Amino acid sequence: MTEAVTGSVTALDLEEMARQMLAFQDLTRELDAIIDSSSDGLWICDADAVVIRINPASERINNIQASEVVGKNMRDLLDQGFIDRSAALEALTTGKVVSQLQNRQGRKLISTGTPVLDGNGRVIRVVVSERDVTEIDNLQRELEEQEALRDQFRSHMLEMQQADLASRSVIARSPLMVNALKQALKVSAVNSTVLILGESGVGKGLIAELIHKNSSRADKPLIEINCGAIPESLIESELFGYEKGAFTGAQTSGKPGYLELADGGILFLDEIAELPQAAQVKLLRFLENGRVVRLGGTKARTLDVRILAATHRNLDQMVKDGTFRLDLYYRLNVIPIHVPALRERRDCILPLVRHYVDLFGARDSIRKRLTRAASDALLAYDYPGNVRQLMNICERLVVMTETDLIDVKDLPAEIAAGGHQPTRGGGVWHDEVTLQETLDKVEKAVLVKALEMHGNQVRMAEALGVNQSTIARKLKKHGIA
Ligand SMILES: Nc1ncnc2c1ncn2[C@@H]1O[C@H](COP(=O)(O)OP(=O)(O)OP(=O)(O)O)[C@@H](O)[C@H]1O
Prior knowledge:
The chain is α/β, with parallel strands linked by helices. The chain is built from 19 helices and 14 strands. The strands form four sheets. It has a five-stranded antiparallel β-sheet with strand order 2-1-5-4-3.
């Protein structure tokens, strides 16, 4: 009975075993198909790092036959130099998944070793997948090269633009200034009013010239007036003109104003913040309807004038203070262009120095160079008078320096001293020097500096709060200019 039962169980077991065997064979075939069809290379090693199999993708990637490595230990392959690193060995040692970048026969591979654990957590196999990333790497490099080329191309374009601008004597190296010039070139093409903002001497006038040169009005006049330099009593007649007998002292025939003279072209109103209130109203009216009536006249003339305006003042604040009309501000501020101070674009300093040293040198047939230390000191200085100040310094250096080489000692004291201002009071007066001599010395230094910063007597007078005749007299007294 027992035997019969045993016999029947054995028969069942055999049947089950046969079924499981078939299932196992199916599984093995499935696994073989997966391994062989994988486009990633696969290496399977046992717990001693002996290679059990590799797939066709690995044969292809490594340019080998499976028979050359199957049965060999990874340690020997490493020793023989067949591989430079082994993800299998590292995965076996650490029991963890590891990824490595490997170089094999000129190709770049990413190898990932994954340990296979038994029920007790012991490593029994390690599967290494390897992916050839040479192509991806090449593509990446190509992409980087393309990007580098694009950057090169961009900076070449910028250089071309700069060469173009340099030929017009506009030096721009720093991105801030290049941007301001780009804006100026862009607005050249249209007829909009432009408000050019920036400290005194930064090149606002130059921007206005650039806009004119590149506009469709280039062959028509660019008339520039400095609103701060015309006496308040004359500004309206100068701007809008007058009819005969309009006021005492007026020409009997009458006179066209600057607006009429600029017909077809551009009127550049420098120092617009200085425009008196009455003239502000009239200018606003012209901007709104394009017509002017001369002083003392009744006939309105329609004109085609593009207005550019500039100021170093804070118009926003002036509007708040009630000294500049809000409606005119809106009309003028259609397109604002900010010209940065020179200290905000130090990249421009040395190109400007070179430009002006060469320019003034060529004028007087003198060729001068700067020592490194002199260049460094010029680069470090803050230039409160901006490009105008730098330009005047260069002219003086070219004319006054005895040798061909301009050194730190030839620079103005405040620049040579590293931009530090001389000490006040105590530094100026020395024993045995009279008060008058000391005051004269200070006055001369102030005049030299103001001339350097402002370039002409009108601007100097404005900055120093005296009238122009005082400046003229004092310059003569000190033998300056
Ligand atoms: N980028 C530049 N390259 C070469 N020269 C420049 C540059 N910018 C300004 N200059 C020169 O500096 C001087 C002062 O420039 P400009 O008169 O245009 O300044 P501004 O801002 O209009 O001054 P202000 O407000 O006092 O009228 C001019 O002689 C001008 O040619």
